[in-house]
Write a structure and sequence with these properties.
Blueprint lengths: L7 E4 H9 L1 H9 L9 H18 L5 H18 L7 H36 L6 E12 L9 E14 L2 E8 L17 H9 L9 H23 L7 E7 L7 E3 L4 E3 L5 E2 L1 H4 L2 H7 L5 H15 L9 H7 L11 H8 L4
Helix pairs in contact: 1-2, 1-7, 3-4, 3-5, 4-5
Length: 343
């Protein structure tokens, strides 16, 4: 779907924020109030993300050659990394963790993905396949409300795109897979995934799962964006898939403090199958989900209309979103609850 006539722009991070709390979205994305930029884990992921993408861009497909390029780039980036550690020992340990994660990535998927990039690049017309933060976008047509008939562009990013058989696969590096919730352990939309997605938007249901719901909306945007990239690169009607790879999963790491070594493993989450609705797929022959796509449109319309009042779902938002929210100091709903007199 083309976004050439889009009249407004949103992004998947904004959608995720709104799912947690529309008031938080208003503060962060409408008024531009800055939250904390201090996210050491995300900064380390960015270092490793850049090193891997630079290695993939080198064109090497042999494991040793890929590792040499990535390790050299990681060393350079880490030298410039100015995170305040409490000791040189901690800084050295965190570098060991990144090196172990890089090794696990190369063992698990690195060489296959590098070869897949090479194959896809050979088939494509001129275009970029490697990021980091390779931009994609999807266009959503708003059906109802004050912005009915408007087209909205929703932006997302992946870190690289590779070919896997007949498929085009977008890969995004993330800190962990924890936000996926049960999506991480499911391979099918039908069943509890569909039920809990629907229940999240039901004001009468206690279900509140903004992270898995946001992941499904993100998958819809990314896969549609990959279709647009596919068309621009003249790659025919190849199916598109979306994969997330965690680069900061401490639970998989094993540390030998005596020998000062770190080993870890890597989990790869393909979100395509858990997103695809087989009924919609049967009708369109595209990886789509009518339920998710429809909800993406209603969430988009709500944000465009300025519907930031969280009152209808405040009890769930207060319980789950407020404890780690950086905007409680200026949130009228939260402040009203704090100063309310019972009795």
């Amino acid at each position: 779907m083309t976004d050439d006539t889009a009249t407004a722009t949103l992004d998947v991070d904004g959608l995720r924020t709104a799912l947690h709390c529309p008031r938080r979205y208003e503060f962060a994305h409408v008024h531009g109030l800055a939250g904390s930029d201090d996210d050491a884990v995300a900064d380390r992921v960015d270092v490793l993300r850049s090193a891997i993408c630079d290695a993939l861009r080198s064109g090497e497909t042999d494991r040793e050659a890929l590792e040499a390029v990535a390790s050299d780039r990681l060393s350079t980036l880490w030298t410039d990394h100015d995170e305040p550690f409490h000791s040189s020992t901690q800084r050295r340990h965190e570098r060991r963790v990144l090196e172990a994660t890089l090794s696990a990535y190369l063992d698990r998927v690195g060489t296959d993905h590098a070869a897949g990039i090479e194959r896809l690049d050979a088939d494509a017309t001129r275009g970029e396949l490697i990021g980091p933060a390779l931009p994609l976008s999807s266009a959503v047509d708003v059906a109802d409300g004050p912005h009915a008939a408007e087209r909205v562009r929703i932006d997302a990013t992946v870190d690289y795109v590779y070919g896997d058989g007949s498929s085009i696969v977008g890969v995004r590096f993330v800190p962990t897979l924890a936000p996926l919730g049960r999506l991480r352990y499911r391979s099918d939309w039908e069943g509890d995934v569909a039920d809990r997605f629907t229940d999240h938007f039901d004001d009468g249901s206690p279900t509140f799962e903004p992270d898995p719901v946001g992941s499904l909306l993100e998958t819809a945007v990314v896969i549609d964006g990959l279709r647009g990239l596919r068309d621009r690169l003249e790659l025919g009607d190849r199916p598109c898939r979306y994969v997330q790879i965690p680069l900061a999963n401490r639970s998989a790491a094993t540390v030998n403090w005596v020998q000062d070594t770190v080993e870890t493993s890597l989990e790869v989450a393909d979100l395509t199958d858990v997103y695809v609705d087989h009924h919609t797929y049967g009708m369109t022959h595209d990886h789509r989900n009518e339920t998710v796509d429809d909800r993406l449109e209603t969430v988009t319309a709500s944000l465009l209309a300025g519907s930031f009042d969280p009152s209808d779902r405040w009890e769930r938002i207060e319980e789950h979103a407020c404890p780690d929210c950086e905007y409680t100091v200026c949130c009228q709903e939260y402040i009203a609850g704090e100063v309310r007199f019972d009795g």
